Amino acid sequence: MPQHTHAQTRICPDCSGFATVAIATGIRLSDGTRHTIPVVCLACHGAGVTARRLATARTA
């Protein structure tokens, strides 16, 4: 019986699928936790995947 082949995922090559990260600023808040800022991947805009390339598109 043949095995099913799943479609390949289009993981973003710039962030490897980790689209949003939290960067610690080094500042501690009054409750003892660190202040963090979220940063999203500029290539995929925080989605973690890229758009499928068209079959008609050519690379130079």
| Spans of at least 5 consecutive residues with low confidence | none
Largest beta sheet: what is the strand line-up? 1-2
Strand content: 25-35%
- List how many beta strands DSSP finds: 2
Largest sheet: 2 strands, antiparallel
Counting DSSP H or I runs of 4 or more residues, the number of helices is 0
Distance between the termini: 42 Å
Overall geometry comes to: elongated
**Which structural category do the helix and sheet elements fall into?**
mainly beta
Mean pLDDT: 84
Give the key terms.
elongated; 27% strand
What report would you give on this structure?
The chain is mainly β. The chain has a domain at 16-53. It has strands at residues 20-28, 34-40. It has a two-stranded antiparallel ribbon with strand order 1-2. Strand 1 (20-28) and strand 2 (34-40) form a beta hairpin.
Question: What's a quick, concise take on this entry?
Answer:
This protein has 60 residues and is mostly beta strands. The chain has strands at residues 20-28, 34-40.
Indicate the topology:
Elements: E1 20-28, E2 34-40
Antiparallel strand pairs: 1-2
